[in-house]
Structures are given as C-alpha cells and as structure tokens.
Design goal:
Elements lengths: L7 H5 L8 H53 L3 H22 L5 H21 L2 E4 L11 E8 L7 E6 L1 E4 L2 E4 L1 E7 L2
Parallel strand pairs: 2-6
Antiparallel strand pairs: 1-4, 3-6, 4-5
Helix pairs in contact: 3-4
Length: 183
C-alpha cells in the first residue's frame, strides 16, 4: 500500500459510468450482426440473379438450337416450291404428247417453255449457267476434255460439251470444254 492519505471526497465524486466490457462487445456485435445479415441478404439476391441469368441463357441456347434445326429442315422449302410448277409443266407435256393430235412442234414448244421456267427458277435462287465459249480457260470453272488446234488465242474455250453451273459464285459443276492450242 501507499503512504498517501486517502481523500474521501475524491471517492465520493461522481465518476462517469464506464460501460462494462460485455456491454461494449454486445453493442459492437449487434452492429456487426446487422451488417453481416445485410451482406448475406445481398449475396442471396445476387445468387438468385445469377441463377435467373443462367436459366435465361439456357433458354436462349435451346431456342437457337430449335431455330437452326428448323432452318436445316426447311432450307430447301422455297426452292422446292419454285420447282413444283416446272414438274406440273412436264407432267402436262407428257399428257399432251400422249394425245392423238399432238405434234412434234407443239411438244417442242411446251418443252422450251418448261426449260425457260426451270432456268428462271434456278436464277431466282442464284444458280447461273457457265457457257464460256471464247473465254480464257479457267481451271476453277472449266474442265478441259480436249485440246484443239485453233487460229485464235491459245488457252481459250472453243467449244462447250456440257454447261457448268455456279451457285452464287461457287462452282456446282464445272463446264466441260474444248480448249484451243496454237497450230
């Protein structure tokens, strides 16, 4: 102990109340608890949002797969619809040829009209004939089946044995051609 005299007046003075340790901790904990609860709620909300976005993405993917499958399945539908009048015309031509009063001239005229209709349908869908007489030989579009001595420029197409066809600038079938060579 100390030798100092004890002043009772000092002891009787009101001392500000100091919070007890437990009360301080409880106050801090309740503030932290509300903050933690708030963060947990925000986390749950974000997790739900992520799940909804994932579900939406899966729906979009399934829709796109269905659309692609449908496009593949019915890609030729318009083309077939365009060819059906040609088929009808050919059938009518065959029926007309079987009649007694059919003449070769009428049958030929019907065939020419049907061919014209077919060519128009093909052109409508981007198919073009390659008939390259007089053009320079192009191995990308032509298939040379023979060489023929010719007075004109060498390596040019002088005869077409079978037309070629392009589908929107892509070769479907090369033209079978005779190519010139110098005499």
């Amino acid at each position: 102990m100390t030798d100092k005299p004890v002043d009772h007046d000092d002891m009787n003075q009101e001392q500000p109340e100091q919070p007890v340790e437990g009360e301080v901790e409880q106050s801090a904990q309740s503030g932290e608890t509300s903050e933690v609860d708030e963060l947990k709620a925000k986390l749950a909300e974000k997790e739900e949002e992520v799940l909804r976005i994932a579900a939406e993405m899966q729906n979009v993917r399934h829709r796109a797969e269905r659309d692609i499958e449908s496009a593949r399945k019915f890609a030729l539908e318009r083309f077939v619809e365009g060819l059906l009048p040609v088929v009808d015309s050919l059938e009518l031509g065959i029926e007309a040829a079987e009649k007694e009063n059919a003449t070769l001239e009428k049958i030929k005229e019907g065939d020419e009209m049907t061919l014209k209709m077919l060519i128009q349908t093909l052109e409508k869908f981007g198919v073009k004939a390659v008939h390259p007489i007089g053009e320079r030989f192009n191995p990308d579009h032509h298939q040379a089946i023979s060489l023929q001595p010719h007075d004109g420029d060498p390596d040019h197409v002088v005869d077409v044995m079978q037309k070629g066809y392009l589908l929107k600038d892509r070769v479907v079938r090369p033209a079978m051609v005779v190519v010139s060579k110098p005499k």
